[in-house]
Description:
Oligomer: single chain
Number of helices: 2
Structural class: mainly alpha
Radius of gyration: 13 Å
Helix content: 40-55%
Order of helices and strands: HH
Amino acid sequence: MAARKAFALRIDNKTLEAVQRWANDDLRSLNAQIEFVLREALRKAGRLPKASTDKQE
Length: 57
């Protein structure tokens, strides 16, 4: 498993509530949903290494 690092995230309340609803719909925790969204955005932007074998969800 890849190393994980904790950090504080400042986010406005409306955005947080929207992401929480999305996480609930996808049966994920809020943290897992934020990681999923970030990973997908990085993948679509071509910012993830090509050899990445992370298949976390």
